[in-house]
Design goal:
Blueprint lengths: L1 H7 L3 H7 L3 H13 L11 H17 L3 H14 L1 H29 L8 H19 L5 H16 L1
Helix pairs in contact: 3-6, 4-7, 4-8, 5-6, 6-7
């Protein structure tokens, strides 16, 4: 909290008025970025919607501060049930709700079957980005993003 207060140019008391400890502060900050960035763009097609989500995730992971935080939080949540639950409640549940909107639109247009599992789709949209960063230290390039898009589109419309 000392480093955050110093970097923000405020006293620690200002931070503690808003957040009782570091955990709620981190979760709140991550949620404010991750959830707002997850608003699904309605392009009118499944292909366009998937591309928009994949591009947004890739662009977020390409930011120098985002990917290391995401991978650190994944690791920390494996050791802390409290952190895991807070991230699930404040980040995962709202993001999954947004992907359900994308899936619901695609079902309504007749693009995909109504039995498509939105939770699995979100895992398939976000997971490869995290794995790519964890294994290569960088965001997906355009070729990898295009290949992932084509693979997801084929899988969802099969």
């Amino acid at each position: 909290m000392n480093a955050v207060a110093e970097r923000a140019g405020v006293g620690k008391a200002a931070l503690y008025r808003r957040w009782p400890s570091k955990l709620p502060m981190v979760v709140d900050i991550v949620a404010s970025v991750a959830v707002s960035a997850a608003e699904p763009e309605d392009t009118g097609t499944l292909s366009g919607d998937l591309w928009a989500v994949l591009r947004d995730i890739r662009d977020a992971m390409a930011q120098p501060y985002v990917a290391p935080i995401v991978t650190d939080l994944v690791a920390a949540s494996l050791r802390s049930p409290e952190l895991a639950e807070a991230l699930r409640r404040e980040v995962s549940v709202p993001r999954r709700r947004h992907v359900r909107q994308l899936i619901d639109r695609a079902v309504a247009r007749g693009d995909i079957s109504p039995d498509v599992d939105a939770d699995v789709v979100l895992d398939l949209l976000a997971g490869p980005h995290v794995i790519r960063f964890a294994t290569s230290g960088g965001a997906m390039d355009d070729g990898a993003l295009e290949a992932l898009h084509a693979l997801l589109l084929r899988a969802l419309t099969a």
